[in-house]
Amino acid sequence: MKKTALLLCLFAYTTISASAQLFAPAFDFPSNVSGKKPAYLTMADGTKIEGTISTVTMKNGLISSINITPKGAGKKILLKADAIANIYVPLSDFAKLDNSINEAFNKHVLNKDVNADIIGEGYLYFEKAQVVKKDKVEELLLQLLNPSFSAKIKVYHFPLSVVTMSTEVKGVTITHDESKSYFIKVGDATAVKLNKRDYNEAYAALYKDCPTMLTKLKDNHRWSKFDEHLWVYHSECN
């Protein structure tokens, strides 16, 4: 029965359009972030802060600092990224509409470490993670792209790896952004970079404990379906 359910689940995702994404939309301040709804932060010392974001300073595509007005306060405060443990950032109304497919597939949160209610309201999620960069381990505040299905494998946005792709369908050119790489964290291991060119071999190691899924993906494990593979892996493979 479980094998049948897995095959049906995999088949269902082959019908999703090329532009559909199960990963959360990439953070792009201020274009897809609401300045009216509250953000929810947990600081490294455990302090909780709720407030509206006014400005975000970026460095090399990553959050460097955030200006936020805490709820009930009249003044903004500046928070450095290295002092933040995690943060829920509200999407703008337009971005939430564009993210409707993501929300539909992620209505059943499979990772109990994130707040399902907040994610369900249309929030992006960032957390502090250790990653390997140039043979060194660094601790960075990264956007988790699959918060709803990340109990076993976490995928973090790698801002400098996004390129614009185009596809022609019946004479109409459709453009979409595609990431050439992500930071991925398997279990409790330190996160490492996974490149598009490496997925052809890496997928077998990522899903090695789910042989039925590996058999199904053997002849069709395209990088563009990485998000769908992960959703099936978390929802159907135990």
Mean pLDDT: 81
General shape: elongated
Termini separation comes to 14 Å
Number of strands: 12
**Could you estimate the helical fraction of the residues in percent?**
10-25%
Largest sheet: 7 strands, antiparallel
- Number of DSSP helical runs: 7
Integer tally of domains: 1
The fraction of residues in strands falls at: 35-45%
Spatial strand sequence of the major β-sheet: 4-3-2-1-5-6-7
Query: What is the N-to-C order of secondary-structure elements (H for helix, E for strand)?
Result: HEEEEEHHHEEEEEEEHHH
Structural category: alpha+beta
Spans where pLDDT lies below 50 across 5 or more residues: 4-20, 164-176
Estimated radius of gyration:
18 Å
Task: Describe this entry's structure for a reader.
It is a single chain. This protein has a seven-stranded antiparallel sheet with strand order 4-3-2-1-5-6-7. Strands 8-11-12 form a three-stranded antiparallel sheet, covered by helices on one side. 23% of the residues lie in helices and 37% in strands. The protein has 238 residues and is α+β, with helices and mostly antiparallel strands. The chain has helices at 2-13, 93-98, 100-105, 116-120, 199-206, 211-217, 226-236; strands spanning 39-43, 48-59, 62-70, 77-80, 84-90, 123-133, 136-144, 153-156, 162-169, 172-179, 181-186, 192-195. It has one domain (24-202). It is built from seven helices and twelve strands. The chain is elongated and about 60 Å long. Helix 1 packs antiparallel against helix 7. The longest helix is centred in the N-terminal third of the chain and has 12 residues, at 2-13. The model is unreliable at 4-20 and 164-176 (pLDDT under 50).
